[in-house]
Write a structure and sequence with these properties.
alpha+beta, SH3 type barrels, five-stranded antiparallel beta sheet, four-stranded mixed beta sheet, 15 strands, globular
Length: 221
């Protein structure tokens, strides 16, 4: 059910569902897994596609009313769009039709959250009907990229062909290689990584690598 999380390297820049225009500040760059009291326990609600933020707000309102300790968010990635002559930041949903809930879930809490507008159901095991949390190892990567609002910012690190970069996340973390190509449109680069005596080509997202001698672009204020 959660195999879509395993594909984070490929889909993080592909979704086109715009959530809203956003203005980011410096304090939004804190990864959610560094938030005080954070626990790696996540559940997912299936909601009406296109109304993810509305569903998230409705869930948050009901949870707060009943003093339920759950944090709801819609994982999104920041993109730049042209609006006339202006360049604006917008949020795009990574998982259209889903709202993530961070915290402990039980039958009592679930019953409080049933029947909320724009919310269809909490994902469960199809055979046992037990609550189906997102596997912890799959959320570790996503939680290290999202800020406390569920937003994954675009990288501001510049990559150049011919320089050396190191993979920082995923199964090939710490592998180094020469940058063969840079695709700024898709926010991906291809590395030539030495492996078992051969040179292998590996494609990774900007968020999953760092130049050994980084050049940092200016962040929009």
């Amino acid at each position: 059910m959660y195999s879509y999380l395993a594909g984070i390297l490929s889909w993080i820049n592909l979704n086109d569902n715009i959530i809203q225009e956003v203005k980011m500040t410096k304090d939004t760059y804190i990864p959610i897994n560094q938030k005080p009291g954070y626990i790696n326990m996540w559940h997912v609600f299936h909601v009406k596609t296109g109304e993810e933020m509305k569903a998230c707000e409705n869930l948050t309102t009901i949870a707060n009313r009943h003093n339920v300790e759950l944090d709801f968010l819609v994982p999104t990635t920041v993109k730049f769009l042209k609006k006339g002559k202006q360049r604006i930041k917008v949020n795009k949903a990574i998982f259209p039709g889903y709202v993530f809930a961070n915290g402990e879930m039980n039958v009592k809490i679930y019953n409080m959250l049933k029947g909320i507008p724009s919310v269809y159901k909490l994902l469960r095991d199809r055979s046992t009907f037990e609550f189906l949390p997102v596997p912890a190892h799959e959320m570790e990567l996503l939680a290290s990229l999202m800020n406390v609002y569920g937003v994954i910012e675009e990288s501001v690190i510049l990559f150049e062909e011919g320089e050396i970069a190191v993979i920082t996340k995923g199964p090939m973390a710490s592998f180094k290689g020469k940058v063969v190509s840079v695709n700024k449109h898709k926010n991906k680069l291809t590395l030539a990584v030495p492996f078992l005596g051969e040179e292998r080509r590996v494609e990774v997202g900007f968020l999953f690598a760092e130049p050994v001698n980084p050049k940092v672009d200016e962040v929009d204020s």
